[in-house]
Amino acid sequence: MAHYFASDVHLRFDQPDRDLRFSNWLSQLRPDDSLLLAGDLCDFWMASRNSPTELLEKNVSLRRLAEFRSQGGELSIMPGNHDAWLCPFYERELGARIVSDPFELTVCGLRLHLVHGHLLGARRKWKAWMESHAFFTGFSRLPNPLARVLDGVLTRNNDRKLDSDEERHLRFYRIYAARLRGQADLVVIGHVHRAVDENATDPRMIVLGGWQARSSYLKVDQQGASFHIQDDRKPQGTAAQLFPQHSAATQGEAS
Prior knowledge:
CATH architecture: 4-Layer Sandwich
Radius of gyration: 17 Å
Number of domains: 1
Structural class: alpha/beta
CATH superfamily: Metallo-dependent phosphatases
Oligomer: single chain
Helix content: 25-40%
CATH class: Alpha Beta
Number of strands: 11
């Protein structure tokens, strides 16, 4: 049995490569494994503008998550800033357990403290408004052409400020993790799409990273904790080729 942790997959219908990579990875999980997704499984666009039926019909990864759960796998999902309003869907259709933010658990002798990361003080105030139910509902009602224009504007704005935003969030993350010294062995955070493993710190801080241009996940088993990163913008071949076996040490070198 192994425990897996991932975050910020941001599934959306206009990014089929992401659906392919994530569904291929999910196919390797065993029925006795557990998976915790630490926020933003679905992107805001897909979360707000599609019915539950459309989500399951059009997205392989969501169907595979439901299959994993029905076969005995343990599936937990933490709300993120993009998909907090999908929690009833995750519970009903995927069979997921919704966990609080922050969430603490001990697995294989390691104390883990997990947060999505958007509530740690680094986000801009206007982004907090965009995470409200009012904005979610309003965006869902916009005509498609207008919604796509707004989505494009927000994406370009985020891309321009990406590096500085990530650095600002990481500074807040390090302060947050340091406060948990003696209380946690691993502080696991999402939201920032850059995968980070600061394994020389106490506690060890892991930023799970996003699935926009690569695939990254944390694995915890009796061998310890190992952090895996696979770069592949254009996946080809079998799932085994996409995600080769790693030999990261117990201290968790990024691979």
